[in-house]
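Ticket closed. Logging final result for GDP-mannose pyrophosphatase.
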Amino acid sequence: MIRTISSREVYRNRWTRVREDVIERTNGQRGIYGVVDKDPAAIIIPLEVTAEGEFVYLIEQFRYTVGARHIEFPQGGWEMAEVDAEEMARGELREETGLTAAKMTYLATLQIAYGVMNQQQHVFLAEGLAMGEAEPDAEEHDLVVRRVSVSEFEQMLLDGVIVDNCSVAAWGLYKVWRERR
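Final structure:
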């Protein structure tokens, strides 16, 4: 177990808090640990089953931290510590894609990059989809919604076209959940 000796906030904005902790390890050695605190988020797997097959909806957007556009499942948070996870997932889905879901199935809660960040991500499967009007945030002005077949999506994973670890983890979780139903 690691014991916290002291903690100080070094940065804060609407989305993120960064703190630096002085810690003591079980062997008595002291050190510094940097922690990024973020409020909970949701990731949504929008799955559409038709006579033509199974499809998922993805978004493509510019991710500033890596300086490139990337494709991923709709995801995000509301910058609030206390939220109803399903309400947030429904809101993020509608905001980013315009989709509403007749059925939302909670799959699990995962930790995102827990080596440096303290953020939970609630994983939901969205079914019975209906298209409406997207309402992206200012940071999401360049979102592109894509509807792709499940086989195309899985090939994108294998080809490294989709590199978002949250999307990959959510899909793997969904596949295990589906197999065990």
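Residues 51 and 164 are 29 Å apart (CA to CA). No further action required.
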